[in-house]
From TrEMBL:
The keyword Oxidoreductase applies. One of its GO terms (molecular function) is oxidoreductase activity, acting on paired donors, with incorporation or reduction of molecular oxygen. PANTHER family: BLL6902 PROTEIN, LUCIFERASE-LIKE MONOOXYGENASE. Pfam families: Bac_luciferase (PF00296). InterPro entries: Bact_Lucif_Oxidored, Luciferase-like_dom, Luciferase-like_sf. Residues 17-260 form the Luciferase-like domain. GO terms for cellular component: cytosol. It comes from the Bacteria. Keywords: Monooxygenase, Oxidoreductase. This is Alkanesulfonate monooxygenase SsuD/methylene tetrahydromethanopterin reductase-like flavin-dependent oxidoreductase (Luciferase family).
């Protein structure tokens, strides 16, 4: 298979899982700590020249769970950096309410929202969506529901008019005929990403005109190394995009845990023989391959990353950060990649 390799320059951002813990070793002891530090880290990374601030979304956990207030706050406090999620679980979402929230957050940020969504990952509770009031109709699964919610969401942010207007409204309707969700944010439809764990769902995302977001976990479809399988997934996505005939170019992101060991703190935290191989195992009913982490002195790190085919094929790299180590250290993690690694690889 011929693998598409993007031009060298890359968007480089961070991906925070938004953990908090009362542990004395954690610098995020509460939800308030995580929220405020997330805003501060986005500001710091923007100042350093980074390109994106992305956040995981999990429910029933000591992690970030409601993305839109945070995204809107970051949008109001920054000027340039992209703001996104990786990813929102569409099993839990009312797509119309989500369209209102995302439209407002995107307008506040001046059109910088890059929204990652997916069918979701294993959660802290069993069938957690039931407590949110959602369930699968007979003969369907919650994965079907997530995809159906996604299709509705895409239609309404694209300006679909579907609601019968009241003939005697409190305020005059802006136009005759059915009404749609407000506010609309021009351009948001092209800034939706699907978090895909398989070749097939990547192809489905391409057909619907969503960008591709691929993490450090993928369905094992061949037994090959993780980065090779992920690069092949990206090529499947791009082939499906071409076949669909969209008139614009999609984006592709991959996430990685990458640490340049340039300080005593780096070596203390990450310099103790982290595994250099992928791992394979069962998760959420399928066999998965988990990508390795990278932690090495810059020269060694550059050589390792040069061999990662999926990073080469993507236009966006999201660096997973250890958010409980605090804003200053995480800004240092990102700065180290931007200054000691990215230029040598042609990413800057």
């Amino acid at each position: 298979m011929h693998l598409h390799v993007s031009p060298g320059m890359k968007n480089i951002g961070f991906l925070s899982f938004g953990h908090w813990s009362p542990s004395p070793h954690s610098k995020t002891r509460s939800a308030a700590d995580v929220l405020h530090q997330s805003i501060e880290l986005a500001e710091a990374v923007e100042e350093l020249g980074g390109d994106g601030a992305y956040f995981r979304v999990h429910h029933y956990a000591n992690q970030l769970g409601s993305p839109f207030p945070l995204l809107a706050a970051i949008g109001a406090r920054t000027d340039r950096i992209e703001i996104g999620t990786g990813v929102i679980d569409m099993r839990y979402e009312n797509p119309l309410y989500m369209a209102e929230d995302s439209g407002a957050a995107d307008l506040i940020s001046g059109g910088r929202l890059q929204l990652g969504i997916s069918r979701g990952s294993p959660e802290q509770v069993v069938d957690g969506w039931r407590y949110f009031g959602y369930g699968a109709p007979e003969g369907q699964t919650m994965a079907d529901v997530a995809r159906a919610n996604t299709e509705v969401y895409l239609q309404v942010i694209d300006g679909a008019r579907f609601a019968e207007p009241n003939p005697n409204p409190m305020f005059p309707n802006p136009h005759p005929g059915p009404l749609g969700i407000q506010p609309q944010s021009p351009g948001l439809r092209r800034r939706i990403w699907w978090g895909s764990a398989s070749n097939a769902t990547g192809e489905w995302a391409a057909k619907l005109g969503m960008n591709l977001m691929s993490s450090t976990l993928k369905e094992d479809e061949s037994g090959k190394p993780f980065h090779v399988q992920q690069a092949e997934q990206i090529e499947h996505f791009r082939a499906a995009w071409r076949e669909a005939g969209h008139d614009w170019e999609p984006r592709v992101s991959v996430s990685r845990s990458i640490f340049a060991l340039v300080s005593d703190a780096d070596r203390a935290y990450f310099g103790h023989g982290r595994p250099e191989d992928d791992s394979f195992g069962a998760i959420d009913g399928f066999r998965g391959v988990f990508g390795r982490s990278y932690a090495a002195e810059p020269d060694r790190l550059i050589e390792q990353l040069r061999e990662d085919e999926a990073i080469a094929a993507a236009d966006t790299l999201l660096l997973t950060v250890p958010n409980q180590l605090g804003v200053d250290y995480n800004a240092h993690v990102v700065e180290s990649i931007l200054t000691h690694v990215a230029p040598a690889l042609g990413w800057r």
